Amino acid sequence: MPVLIVEDDHFYSQRISELLRDQELEVQIAQSADTALAVDLGNIDCAIIDIMLPNDPAASGITSEECRAGFLTGIAVARRFLQKKPELRIVLLSSGVENTEAEAWALQRSVPFVSKNEGYDSLIQTLRRVKILAGERAPLSFIVHGHDSEAVLELKNFVQNTLKWQEPLILREQPSLGKTLIEKFEEYSRKVDCVFVLLTPDDKVIGSGSSEEKRRSRQNVIFELGFFYGALERRSGRILLLHKGPVDLPSDTSGIVWIDINNGIAAAGEEIRKEVASLLV
């Protein structure tokens, strides 16, 4: 499976090349925007592109304005690659310096965005997730939850020990490393294969002009649900809604499949397994 590495750091591109060739992949390396755009994409299945690249506008046709003086050259290259070959799988690399415009472009197109600071293993895992590398990497999930700690632990146990997936990510357990809350969401949304949203009756609410008391999930759960719908897309089938107790379900999600876990996660296990069948290794 031919892979194109677009990276001007000779040592980094050489190391990636060695790792991929060890996996019996064919590798080409381009060290600038113009040399990358001159590559015949006919036999290329995946392009790994650094977002900051040298650029000769006269040779590449990429203006200084479009590449933001070099800070978004890789995005300009990726854009042209996808125009030529829409099915091309792309993975973007960053040096770890925050670049919100590049990250937003990748997020909108579900393009993996890997920081070099995360090490080579992060890139290898990403290449396995997009089916460039074969391997036995189990799916990685994220649990969105409210106050029901028992449900969280039961779900975590089911994912690890019954589905045999990796340990699920729970946001409060992950290091912030100086990131804001929304930045943590953006980072993990690119890494996970599946999101489980636990909707439990955490908060009491009384509607305006009514004495009727209702129970709803915590507002952070609803926010995170909406965030992941935007990041992973509702139709991807990668977001599962699990509800428990007398919880008032958001009307905006009417028509979406809900899984009832009132009798416990194990009791709903077969339904959960059916929904995630395409992700099982």
Folded structure, characterized:
β8 and β9 (213-216) form a beta hairpin. The radius of gyration is 22 Å and the shape is elongated. The chain contains 10 helices and 11 strands. It has a 5-stranded parallel β-sheet, sandwiched between helices. The chain has a 4-stranded parallel β-sheet with strand order 6-7-10-11, sandwiched between helices. The protein has a two-stranded antiparallel ribbon with strand order 8-9. The chain is 35% helix and 17% strand.
Describe, in short, the structure shown.
The protein is α/β, with parallel strands linked by helices and 281 residues long. The protein is built from 10 helices and 11 strands. The strands form 3 sheets. The chain has a 5-stranded parallel sheet with strand order 2-1-3-4-5, with helices on both faces. The protein has a 4-stranded parallel sheet with strand order 6-7-10-11, sandwiched between helices. Strands 8-9 form a two-stranded antiparallel ribbon.
Largest sheet: 5 strands, parallel
Please count the helical segments: 10
Reading the helices and strands in chain order gives: EHEHEHHEHEHEHHEEEHEEH
Which parts are unreliable, with pLDDT below 50 for 5 consecutive residues or more?
none
Number of extended strands: 11
Shape: elongated
Indicate the percent of residues in helices: 25-40%
The proportion of strand residues reads 15-25%
